[in-house]
What does this fold into?
Amino acid sequence: MRIIILGANLLTTLLVDKLSKSNHLITVIDSQLTDLNKLSEDYEIKIIHAHPSYPDSLRKANAEEADAIIAITPNDELNMIACQVAHSIFKVPLKIARISSSHYVVRKELFGNNDLPIDVFINPEKIIARSLKCLIMAPGAQRAYDLCNGQLKAIEYASFSQEHLTLDNQHQIFNPANSNIAIFPSIHNDDYFSLIFPEAAKIKKIIIGGANETTGQLIEAIGDIAHITVIEPSHEKCLIMAKKHPNITIICEEFSNHQILLQENINRSDWFLALSDDDENNLIAAISAKKLGCKKSLSLTYRLHYLTIIEPNQVDILLSPQSLVLQSIYARLFNQNYVRTYDFNQGTLICIRVTDNTKVPNIDPDYIFRHHQLTSFKVDNRVFKGDYLLYFTTIDTYQLEWIKEITISNETSQY
It folds into this structure.
């Protein structure tokens, strides 16, 4: 594929690294020459030093020949305009845009070929908050995902036994290839987590370091299950958070300060989450919280080398926001509405939705999910429209040719 990426940042680097392994032709456009040069030193790509959304910039990138454009600059409006230009002038068939503001995301009527022609819009903060919720509600989890439009859960543990979960007699836990991954149906009621994870019902207090869009998304997702305290040094951000979320406690202080953590009874807290954009502050705070007696600590880290130098006993979970967003972009780039890939430490789970237009691969899946029931393919090997086919593999997905052969759709979608 010929792919144009707008914006040179850490997410771009991860995306280029993955795409280059499959020999795609990649062009990156950005107004910051230093970031572009760093990319071109490490990868065989074309770089263009220009404003990303200008028609002349896209023309220099041969946008009329491009198969896809991925607009992932930090500016929502620039990303949207770039997709409009790519559609109206260059007829680029697939437009993917990073849109963080909830003011845009909630208005679905804005997006479509007759309005803002964006085929897939990625909301990083929503993706991160969704993953955080799964991790918080699944004690002992290292990674956790919603599958099949939220109808299944997939959770990876450092070590797994059936004792991690308690299900009623109507629901079964599946453990692909004897991995540490548990797959099971969601139960659609408010008591679902307390049924499956008895420890989750005991969560009473959560302290969050940093007030931003991710924090807000997470509060909306879990605000009714525990008392939440947000610690944020910016007075302006505190006022904004207080206005949006009046039922939480907000402390205007440095969240990495030992004394502040002690003052807020960190030793009695179930979780400490460091969610700011500052890696060092996040790590210092999460390590401190763990040492001061917090049951679980989690830190977002944007610099990937921190993932390898921080010891597991210092912080319970280190989460790379870019890696989570990368999975969403990569899956939608090639398979859009029919396929999702979920990366775990022990392998990758691939979920394919069967529709009239889906070209089902000639490879047996591990499981079939149909009518809220998850079944081993060895038990029922029939495939019907509406089914979800689940495959578990330890091979990198870019090496699996059969994934690329699955028919894709061009309807607008959100993830």
About this structure: Confidence is low (pLDDT under 50) at residues 407-415. The longest strand covers residues 141-147. The first helix runs from residue 10 to 20.
